Q: What sequence folds into this?
């Protein structure tokens, strides 16, 4: 689409340097990760316990 | 461009009236419109596929179930808000992909390390698998209306993935998926057939109010609706597809147009599913009874399309992510013998999901509901990474997020976290009570 053309599927772009997120970002990411794990377990438990709660499909 | 008539009465044969060598204005206008039409068609792609692809089987069933339960007046305007929310997220994906020319998984992996890259890919694998099972269920329900058995629907869904990638060109894959996406409009036809009128639509906006709805159910429906419009696979898919299509920095405007068209079409079709059921309130029982008998064939066909397109796009998002994180070829332009892992993931994961979907005793409706809630629950980390990448000056330079875009993105992240948490807890409480 654009003038410079896309990289081909077999081209290997240069690896990027690692970002250095601040302490607040790291804390936010780990807190969200913990929340996601807990909530995923909750959804799993709901699925295991809650058969028949929503009607049925043919 | 030639303008104005060259003489002759209105309606006369302009070819004869035009001076030699001059193209008649009607032909010029027709050619101009044809050119504009093809430019528009060329713009359509990842944005439309992400947005309409998210009008998938579980989403349409969720919209219809909400419409049947609450009627017009509550959720239809909310559906439009959620598509605006999805637009904010997908615009960032498209912009990051166009500027960096790398997929989401690759960027997280390289900028934030293997651990975060693996966890982002892990979230995608889990939510994709559960959602794919739900897509096969939708396909099975839709085809089941016409008497097609469950095993055949698994074969058809898997065959769709093979047919999609058989061209070994991204453009061909995209064109086939776009053709399928057109049939999402069947939900609008179902709404019309069910007797929905423009008056219903107007009343819906005039009387919308969340007050008076049972609070627990409302939270579940809010989260389910958000989960029906913004999901982890959309983030991975759109960014990777933008790269595969060859978008660059200069194509950001076209990408936005693609997204805007996709969001508008998807919102109209989602509203169609909602209205089709809202106009048929009072029915109970199996999913086919969500809508009035006259609209059922259209709704069932719509479910076939919704499940089929989502199987294509969700499988592609997983294949892109695996290729990006493992550093192996990951493009629909690659020959199969050079990208075995990419094409293998694209096919094997949906086949496994299809097999799970026909296991005896699987609670189908629970899978459909929980797939949406799980997508909402798994989304926050993906969204935070997306915002971080869109603000990464090293990658994005002047194309990084503006303060206004960051405010919108932060609002979306908070909304998703609150809705996902509330829905997960509410779901567990109601499951314990039953």
A:
């Amino acid at each position: 689409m654009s003038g410079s053309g896309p990289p081909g599927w077999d081209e290997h772009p240069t690896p990027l340097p690692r970002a250095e997120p601040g302490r607040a970002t790291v804390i936010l990411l780990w807190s969200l990760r913990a929340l996601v794990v807990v909530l995923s377990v909750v959804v799993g438990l709901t699925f295991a316990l809650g058969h028949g709660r929503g009607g049925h499909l043919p | 461009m030639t303008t104005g008539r060259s003489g002759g009465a209105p309606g006369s044969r302009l070819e004869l009236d035009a001076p030699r060598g001059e193209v008649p204005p009607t032909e010029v206008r027709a050619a101009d419109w044809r050119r504009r039409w093809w430019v528009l068609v060329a713009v359509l792609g990842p944005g439309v596929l992400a947005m309409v692809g998210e009008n998938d089987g579980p989403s349409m069933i969720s919209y219809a179930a909400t419409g049947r339960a609450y009627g017009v007046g509550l959720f239809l305007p909310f559906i439009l808000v959620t598509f605006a929310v999805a637009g904010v997220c997908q615009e960032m994906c498209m912009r990051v992909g166009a500027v960096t020319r790398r997929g989401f998984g690759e960027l997280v992996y390289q900028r934030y390390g293997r651990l975060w890259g693996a966890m982002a890919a892990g979230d995608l694998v889990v939510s994709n698998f559960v959602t794919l099972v739900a897509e096969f269920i939708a396909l099975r329900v839709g085809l089941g209306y016409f008497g097609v058995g469950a095993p055949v629907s698994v074969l058809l869904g898997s065959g769709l993935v093979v047919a999609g990638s058989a061209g070994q060109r991204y453009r061909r894959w995209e064109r086939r998926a776009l053709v399928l996406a057109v049939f999402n409009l069947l939900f609008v036809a179902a709404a019309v057939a069910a007797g929905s009128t423009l008056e219903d639509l107007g009343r819906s906006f005039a009387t919308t109010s969340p007050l008076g709805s049972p609070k627990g159910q409302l939270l579940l429906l809010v989260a389910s609706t958000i989960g029906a419009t913004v999901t982890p696979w959309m983030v991975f898919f759109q960014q990777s597809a933008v790269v595969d299509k060859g978008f660059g920095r200069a194509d950001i405007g076209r990408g936005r147009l693609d997204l805007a068209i996709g969001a508008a079409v998807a919102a109209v079709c989602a509203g169609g599913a909602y209205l089709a059921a809202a106009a048929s309130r009072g029915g109970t029982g199996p999913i086919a009874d969500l809508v009035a008998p006259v609209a059922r064939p259209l709704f069932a066909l719509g479910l076939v399309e919704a499940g089929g397109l989502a199987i294509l796009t969700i499988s592609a998002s997983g294949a892109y992510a695996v290729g990006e994180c493992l550093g192996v070829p990951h493009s629909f332009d690659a020959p199969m013998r050079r990208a075995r892992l990419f094409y293998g993931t694209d096919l094997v994961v949906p086949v496994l999901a299809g097999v799970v979907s026909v296991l005896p005793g699987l609670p189908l409706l629970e899978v459909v509901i929980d797939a949406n809630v799980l997508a909402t629950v798994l989304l926050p980390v993906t969204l935070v990474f997306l915002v971080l990448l869109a603000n990464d000056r090293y990658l994005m330079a002047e194309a990084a997020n503006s303060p206004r875009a960051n405010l919108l993105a932060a609002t979306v992240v908070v909304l998703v976290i609150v809705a996902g948490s509330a829905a997960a807890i509410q779901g567990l409480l109601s499951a314990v009570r039953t």
Remarks:
- Residues 1-5 of chain A have pLDDT under 50 and may be disordered.
- Helices of chain A lie at 23-49.
- The CA atoms of residues 15 and 36 of chain A lie 29 Å apart.
